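Hello,

I think I submitted the zinc ion job twice by accident. Can you confirm which output corresponds to this input? Input:
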Amino acid sequence: MDPEIGEAFAELGLSPEASEREVKAAWRRLVSQWHPDRNTSAAAHARMQRINRAVEAIRRAGFTAPAAPPTGAGGDEDKRTTEPPARTIDRKVRLTLEEAAAGCTRVLRGRIVDACAACAGAGFRLPAEPCPRCQGAGTIRQRAWFAWVGVQTACDACLGSGQFRPPCAACSGSGRAPARRYQVGVRIPPGVRDGDLLHVAADQFRAGVLPGELNIRVALRPHEWLRLDRDGSVHCELPVDGFAWIANRPVDVPTLVGLQSLALQRGQLEYRLEGQGFPVERRGPRGDQWVTITPVFPPQMSTDQQILLDQLIATTSGPDAESTDPRLRAWQQALRRQRRR
Ligand SMILES: [Zn+2]
Ligand SMILES: [Zn+2]
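Support: Only one job matched these inputs. Its output is below.
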């Protein structure tokens, strides 16, 4: 227990275990006794101030004290009252697949709005003053015109709380300090996945740059050509010119490090680029990239193309053609035997 809080309870004539209800009751009783409007003694004003300070100290301790008091050395308690609560800033970064694979640096800019220091975020002046209408009692005595006896009703100026709360001048009642801008550079390691949460501790920033820690949620932008699998393999489906495929020509394919040349193999539709995929684990070795091609031929051939194709076919399917492929050669020979009959 903070000795200051102990004194505050004593000022109200209460034990430190007193409930919130008992604190309120004691305050009302003391206000009705010591409010300068009612008590003209020289000490009344100072006493009233001490009472208000005590109530405010108790209230604030209730707001900020941890559920269980720290059991360590006495230094812990000092820390509790002087250090602002740790702040966690949540941010989201959107990365391309290439940026996520290689790692990158992101500059995050934003604004931090702290609670007003003057009023601790309450928006009204602390400590609250007794309501001038009811002198802090929370009730007013109304004289009913038909009755001899006055009737107690809740004070409508303070809604029965007994407190007058003028807006805090420092923040115009908003409870917030002026926004502060921040700008921090954050290193994103290679291999982060969609939905990953990166945590950056406060002490990793230069002093004063960011008063707190950072939680960064990663979102990966969909890639036009590449699809990432859980195992780090990257898949790509690509149309290629059918004639280039027949001719074993090289074509450019997209990879995580830009375009790369791939030598097409006639008859082969799937290709593996070893180690060209995504990091299997963060900062780890990369998986493979798989390229599945779809050879595309023109649906309508031009006359020139048709002539060239006829010449090509004549070299392999003429009346005397003998394919080098044993299965096709056997079939060609069988055809010829049939026609001779
Ligand atoms: Zn009132
Ligand atoms: Zn304020």
